[in-house]
Design brief:
The complex is a heterodimer of chains A (714) and B (75). Chain A is of the alpha/beta class and 714 residues long. Chain A is built from 29 helices and nine strands. Chain B is globular and about 25 Å long. The chains are: A alpha/beta (714), B mainly beta (75).
Chain lengths: 714, 75
């Protein structure tokens, strides 16, 4: 397990419902002072940043995933509940909690806030999205709200317009300098005598045995007694070791079942108790009545109107397909120009280095191995930027929630969940953040099936391989007058991976046993114009990771490969076939020959296990060593490669397709399987995935290549 | 009647649940409580989830779950 960044002595926590602009506020407060992990998107887990305060000091801030309640529903919410409850008894607790509240959705947001207020830690309520409403539309003044909630402060801000941020920082500072905790001995809302006496045994346990404050003890007594499985949060927990000691746990479960029986005997409506009490209290505070609720319901928001088309029964699905098609077409066509720029920069740089360095082995290593290898992959950065950019737009705009809504039914039939859509689409950029995003799926089986098929969604690391093969072997002609043949082939590859993934989902879900039932309760967030800052960040993180990989993995592989391909030097016949690399390739060639791959492809398959895009740099290095000359475009090299014996081109369109198909299915990214191990808590599933994906890759490539030859394509 | 029988645009008040024990607590925490008013928005394509407005936001849930919420139509 990766060690997560740790917190210093004094820190504050950032919480709130999903879709409240929490991330935007985190980014505004911290700038780029983040200790974020290597993977973009792992931020679902634990993200720590530093706020630069007006007194010129920094304070750490922990960003928690968005949550609706301390009664968790999905794994990501469970992480939040456990973290928050662990604060109560330990000395590792925040000095302050920032609870982000979407002002246009006040009551439901205050539900979670009211649970946080029970903890006895000062809470600053941050009213975000002030830009969405007129000042006079505020149902209650911030000052009044602060008083009624007994919050430390209530600060209106607009993350979108960057308004109120300094005020928030000032308030954080003054709270830290002199904390005002108003200790309350009881919950702020009334319970009946019957309700209270029924849950009293739990209250006593929490207060005396767990040292909870009276208010929190009441809150936890109420929450845990509402459900049969209400104690789960204290019980044996597979992810963390925050479970209670054995004896306490035994005692607690005894009391819990007694209380449940008692409530049942007195026919208290258990289930709705906490929500009912809390909402009644909150509605009173913000002056909500049935009349104001109906008036609000009558209001048709702009998003609702837009959705008349976007999620329309007939038009909706077509729009979705259209958007996907447009994205993949444009990834291919728009990036041609910037790719040429990168290419010519790499070439010129290589030639310049060749000029300034004396002819020597080291020069060859740098030019052929390093610049050739790393450069060959960097060329594909524009495409990755476009793809990640579009995915970020789809997510930030709120459209992904619509796709989950529209496709849930189909997803159920496939053994998945409507909320599988977002992780699967994220998989087009990179499987790792996709796998982490499955944490929002509350049903374990559906989550597992989503994880198992996710790496079949063609990630952006496959893009360089597809692009290279398409560029080399697919003619740039028009099909049916409008579609570009190269773009079409790319779309077909994505389609192949996706359709197979969905097909396998059906099969996997048949033989994986179900645990718990599956529900789909999803807020439909309003459409928002994506924040440029946020989209830019996501693209930046992905590019950073890509360049890092290029800088480390590809660099190392390229150097090793260059050595293997250049030695032993047989002076007269500079034939790479007799180098070490050639020998290794020739050894595995018989296995991959039926797929149409020669020894050069064989070596690049081996190296691509480090990362898929390494395949491209490997071919580049091999060809550069072989030619021992200027850096020539890799696509041209592939086209002009002539077989020594038959004197015919080594590769054809069919080889190219076979290679692409192999990459659609093959299990090649070890980082993905490490993450699967962590998320599923067993090696069983990652090994299963490696096995089925590799098998599938071989069989499918075999069918494509042999079938193609049979039909005379070879 | 239950939520899934509402037509788009119709208002209703929640009166209870068909089977208390199996109701997801999350429905209640999202504000779907006895006494709350809702407006039916639509059903998703392919017989998918329903979308309704509650308080000041839009919520979608599966037909099976919406069939557990008893409502009284409001005129």
């Amino acid at each position: 397990m990766k060690s997560s960044p740790s917190l210093s002595k004094e820190w504050i926590a950032l919480t709130g419902n999903p879709n409240t602009g929490k991330t935007a506020i985190f980014n505004l407060l911290t700038g780029l002072n983040q200790k974020v992990s290597n993977y973009p998107g792992i931020t679902v887990e634990r993200k720590i940043g530093e706020i630069y305060l007006p007194n010129k000091k920094n304070i750490q801030i922990l960003d928690l995933p968005g949550s609706y309640s301390l009664t968790p529903k999905s794994y990501d919410e469970q992480v939040v509940s456990e973290e928050i409850l662990s604060w109560v008894r330990s000395d590792k607790k925040p000095s302050l909690i920032l609870s982000i509240v979407d002002i246009s959705n006040l009551t439901r947001n205050l539900y979670f806030t009211s649970q946080l207020l029970d903890l006895g830690i000062p809470v600053i309520v941050v009213l975000n999205m002030m830009d969405q409403i007129q000042k006079n539309e505020l149902p209650i003044s911030p000052g009044q709200l602060k008083k009624n909630l007994s919050a430390a402060a209530v600060i209106p801000i607009s993350a979108l317009k960057k308004k109120g941020v300094n005020h928030l920082k000032d308030t954080i500072l003054s709270q830290l300098e002199n904390p005002k905790i108003s200790v309350q001995d009881d919950l702020p809302f009334e319970m009946t005598g019957i309700q209270r006496s029924a849950i009293r045994p739990l209250f006593v346990f929490f207060k005396d045995k767990m040292d909870y404050s009276p208010r929190l003890a009441w809150a936890q007594a109420l929450r845990t007694s509402c459900r049969k499985d209400g104690l789960n949060i204290y019980g044996a927990d597979i992810y963390n070791n925050k479970a209670l000691e054995k004896e306490k746990w035994k005692k607690l479960t005894e009391i819990h079942s007694q209380v449940q029986q008692e409530l049942k005997d007195k026919s208290v409506d258990l289930l709705a108790l906490e929500p009912q009490l809390r909402y009644r209290w909150i509605d009173g505070i913000v002056n909500k009545t049935e009349e104001t609720d109906v008036a609000e319901l009558l209001n048709e928001t702009r998003s609702e109107k837009v959705d008349r088309v976007m999620t329309h029964k007939v038009a909706g699905p077509f729009i979705f397909i259209g958007i996907l098609y447009l994205i993949f077409q444009s990834v291919f066509s728009w990036s041609v120009v910037p790719m040429d720029w990168v290419n010519s920069i790499v070439e010129q740089f290589g030639n310049w280095v060749r000029l300034i360095l004396p002819p020597h082995l080291i020069r060859d290593l740098i030019v052929e191995g390093v610049i050739g290898g790393v450069g060959a992959v960097l060329v594909f950065m524009p495409q990755i930027i476009f793809l990640v950019f579009f995915m970020a737009i789809l997510e930030d705009s709120g459209y992904m929630a619509r796709t989950a809504f529209m496709l849930d039914r189909i997803m159920i039939k496939l053994g998945l969940h409507g909320k599988s859509i977002l992780p699967l689409m994220t998989g087009y950029a990179c499987a790792i953040p996709g796998i982490l995003a499955t944490r929002t799926i509350d049903n374990w089986k559906e989550r597992l099936v989503t994880i198992l098929i996710l790496p079949l969604m063609s990630c952006s690391a496959r893009l360089p391989v597809y692009a290279l093969m398409i560029g080399a072997f697919v003619p740039s002609t028009k099909v049916f007058g409008i579609f570009d043949a190269q773009g079409m082939v790319l779309v077909v590859m994505y389609f192949l991976g996706t359709v197979t993934a969905l097909f396998l989902a059906v099969i996997f879900s048949r033989w994986i046993k179900n645990k718990g039932n599956s529900t789909f309760i999803m807020e439909m967030p309003p459409y928002r114009i994506p924040l440029f800052r946020s989209v830019f960040r996501q693209v930046y993180l992905r590019v950073k990771q890509f360049v890092n990989d290029a800088g480390k993995i590809i660099l190392v592989v390229s150097i090793i490969l260059w050595v293997l391909a250049s030695f032993p030097k047989t002076d007269e016949t500079q034939n790479i076939q007799f180098s070490y690399a050639g020998k290794i390739g020739k050894t595995i060639e018989p296995v991959i020959r039926p797929l149409g791959f020669d020894w050069k492809i064989g070596i690049s398959l081996l190296t691509s296990f480090a990362a898929r895009e390494v395949m491209v740099s490997t071919l580049a290095t091999i060809y550069n060593v072989e030619a021992d000359n200027d850096l020539i475009k890799l696509t041209d090299r592939l086209k002009k490669d002539i077989d020594h014996e038959t004197k015919e081109p080594t590769y054809s369109l069919l080889t190219g397709i076979s290679i692409m198909v192999f990459f659609v299915f093959a299990a090649q990214c070890m980082a993905t399987f490490a993450v699967v191990r962590r998320e599923t808590n067993t090696w069983k599933w990652p090994f299963f995935m490696i096995f089925y994906m590799t098998g599938l890759a071989y069989i499918m490539s075999f069918i494509v290549y042999q079938g193609g030859i049979y039909f005379g394509m070879g | 009647m239950t939520v899934n029988h509402l037509h788009p645009g119709e208002f209703a008040v929640i009166t209870g649940f068909t089977e208390d024990i199996n109701t997801d607590p999350r429905l209640l925490e999202m504000g779907l409580l006895p006494g709350s008013v809702i407006r039916m928005i639509k059903q998703a394509p392919f017989g998918g989830p329903v979308e309704l407005k509650i308080k000041d936001y839009y919520l979608s849930l599966r037909v099976e779950d919406s069939a557990k919420i008893i409502v009284k139509k409001k005129i």
